[in-house]
Write a structure and sequence with these properties.
homodimer, 234 residues, mainly alpha, Arc Repressor Mutant, subunit A, Four Helix Bundle (Hemerythrin (Met), subunit A), three-stranded antiparallel sheet, 10 helices, 3 strands, 69% helix, DNA-binding
Chain lengths: 234, 234
DNA sequence: TAATTGCACATTGTATACAAAAACGGAGTA
DNA sequence: TACTCCGTTTTTGTATACAATGTGCAATTA
């Protein structure tokens, strides 16, 4: 192999190698270091990461079930391609789940969580002033994590995390556009207000709008990206 | 080991052994042959199924990500315990997804699918007359599969399948009770009518009621089961 | 008797070896 | 040139070997 990919083992001490490899490969896929359609060859990865084939294979089994890689029989694993259709599918589900999250949060949020949420919303507004996209992204995640936590539903959390990963590489898209920042701040405020007032309908509506806007930005971005690239896979 | 579990390799020809093992173990867990908390010891399973440890381990990695087994570090895998809380979490999510399915099916179902759905509803009614629970279960699954297919959302299908598995062993509970059969038939009819008339609100409502009734039956069953058993795990 | 140490064994974690199938390439032929 | 056949190589699929860690039991000691 001529190319030297720029990823290395993510050392999380005392985790089994398979999990270390799993996290490493997952991050590489989600950040785009491993590109859609790229083959994952076991010996190659094993040499690159300095482990044997066994942990590599076990990590690939998990990535397979997570949908990040697809297996071609007797050929091995390759990074899953993300079509516009599959992204729309994901967003369709996320919309429903985000509405559920908003609804549950309304009835279950505690006083402390509510004040944390207020702070997180303020933090987000402050972050949009810094113009640093990754700071903004962190603040956005923090805000939504609090709402997620308030639902008290672990399974829901797990599912949404998994779905969120599928669109990870597009997260920055809708945060980079400064003209949208004030709108995002307003949307967060609406969500906060609705939850505070225990107004289920308003909370769900606000969550829906929030996702809709993300969807528009992401789809637009993908179309652009596709126009500039080669063919049918994004 | 003194006990002889009654499961054998499910032979699906030309699938890699790891997938055969995966299906075998999954079915064993879902049907209760492998009980919650039971340890999955690699050599034991390997001998029992007549393969080496490698496919066993790879199958376990997938079951792990699916949530059917949990790993205890340096101790190995054991069948996940299902608490009432986690089941409620699952059902809460399923309710939202089933409403989404109903909504999408309303707007996207084709003429053929609609007539298939009519037939499936009739088949279900017929099945309830046979008194054979597994026949009824099959008919129920067939009915819901058609609606699922009509949504055209693969990701949604995948998620719901996974969630459904978590409650698989309780599926029979709400189908065994004959007194509920006429109600189930009515519920299916309501769902069919709503979808046929493209009445989104009614379809979602009907789906919600359908799940609510399942939830009640399952929770009641679990409480009974728990009362008759030992301790805190179901 | 109760506690503790140490050893043997059981079990997982990781690496390697072997088998089989598919991909590749080159020689030969029309 | 285009095409096919055949062997070589690469790569996955499966099995086994080795390492490391935990667990239980017995023997020893206070």
């Amino acid at each position: 192999m001529d190319m030297t990919e720029d990823f290395n083992l993510i050392m999380e001490d005392f985790l089994p190698l398979r999990d270390v490899v799993f996290n490493t490969l997952r991050r590489a896929i989600l950040t785009g270091t491993l590109k859609p359609g790229e083959r994952l060859m076991e010996v190659h990865l094993a040499n690159k990461l300095g482990v044997s084939r066994t942990p590599i294979r076990e990590a690939i089994r998990k990535l397979e079930l997570e949908g990040l890689v697809v297996m071609v029989p007797r050929k091995g694993a390759e990074v899953a391609k993300i079509s516009e259709k599959s992204l729309k599918d994901v967003l369709e589900v996320r919309r429903a789940l985000d509405e559920l999250i908003a609804k549950l949060a309304c009835s279950r949020i505690t006083r402390e969580q509510l004040s944390e949420l207020r702070e997180a919303a303020d933090e987000f507004e402050k972050a949009t002033k810094t113009e640093d996209t990754s700071t903004i992204a962190r603040a956005d995640i923090a805000f939504h994590d609090i709402i997620m936590e308030a639902t008290g539903n672990l399974r829901l959390k797990q599912l949404v995390n998994n779905l969120a990963e599928q669109m990870y590489r597009y997260r920055f898209v809708y945060l980079k556009d400064e003209s949208k920042h004030s709108m995002l701040v307003k949307e967060h405020s609406r969500i906060y207000d609705a939850i505070k007032n225990n107004d289920t309908e308003a909370a769900m509506e606000a969550a829906r709008i929030h996702i809709d806007n993300q969807e528009k930005a992401i789809i637009a971005h993908i179309r652009m990206e596709r126009a500039g690239e080669d063919k049918d896979s994004i």
